[in-house]
Amino acid sequence: MQVIRGLHNLRDEHRGCVATIGNFDGVHRGHQAILDQCREQAAKLQLPVTVVVFEPQPREFFAGDQAPPRLALLRDKVRLLDEAGVERVLCLPFNDALRSLTAEAFIDKVLVDGLGVRHLVVGDDFRFGCDRRGDFHLLTEIGEHRGFGVEHTRTFTIDDDRVSSTRIRTLLASGNFDAAARLLGRPYQLGGRVVADQKLARTIGVPTANLPQPVRSLALHGVYAVVSELPDGRCLPGVANIGWRPTVGSTRPVLEVHLFDFDGDLYGERLRVFPCAKLRGEVKFDDFAALKQQIGADRRRAQRYFLQHPVALDNENSLPLASAPLARESVTSDSSAGTPADHDDG
User: Which one, of 31, 19, 22, lies nearest residue 57 by Cα?
Assistant: First the structure.
């Protein structure tokens, strides 16, 4: 699959395609249904499928840190689009220059002159252009004169509700990983590259792999029973903290994973981490001794969870995904349990 960054990198060979436009955050089953429509038309016209995405996502540009957290980073989005059969991704920087384009200018610069679109698949509520005049009707009208067809996306529902990134974020926040996986079409995952940190957890016998996370990707906060995929393909159960580590402090959110029955060096390696059940929220503890005691309790709870829910760890589709947080246990701290506890890298 080709990834084209910016209009200036478009070449003649990129012209002529079936295209769709959107955030495609998470590339969930609703998105997959849109891509199915694109592939149907692409097969008829014998053209490649091109997905137009924006970086940052428009809502992030306007709302900043108040924007909803992402379900997938750009690199993961590109991988998922590739797996869904997309031939090309055009990633446009969403900046003042792009947002100032009128709807007509966007159609001319991006769709006609840039991509030479022959068929476009978008939602019938799709709006674009600095004046928000751009809509499905305008696309259809201009398409008739400029030589491309326009088709609206089919509504994709599960349990009588439309599948959306917002709905998935709500399920994840509620600890319903089973339902979130049904909407995504796969278990939700986080990941990153393991880096060195303060190594405090190693001093108490619970070494962790420390994976820094971008702020906008933090759809989860708290302590979770997880399964991690190692670079060699092995999948091991463990316990993870996702958050800001308020007891020891952190300048950015961190995913910290303690793997059961593992002894090795993971620094510099990439891990995929699948949350299976939420144990509790993030908590700021009075001191490191209290944090140490809670880390031990978290570890035991996660081990019990996997003993009660055995799984073939070489198959991510058989993960024991909970439909709600585990029953609460007492947590001693100087703040409410609504905020996650921190482990530390080691």
Answer: 22
Is the CB of residue 48 less than 8 Å from the CB of residue 18? yes
Tally of CB atoms within 10 A around 307: 9
pTM of the model: 0.89
Task: Find, among 27, 51, 56, the residue nearest to 38 by Cα.
Answer: 51
**Number of CB atoms found within 10 A of residue 59's CB:** 15
Model pLDDT, residue 314: 58
Stronger pLDDT, 132 or 325, i.e. the higher one = 325
Residue pair 120/20 in contact by the 8 Å Cβ criterion: yes
- The residues, ordered by sequence, that sit 6+ positions from 13 with a Cβ below 8 Å of its Cβ are none
Residue 118 near residue 148, CB atoms below 8 Å: yes
Q: Cα separation of 190 and 255, whole Å?
A: 8
Angle between helices 165-173 and 177-184 (to 10 degrees): 160
Q: Residue 138 has what DSSP assignment?
A: H
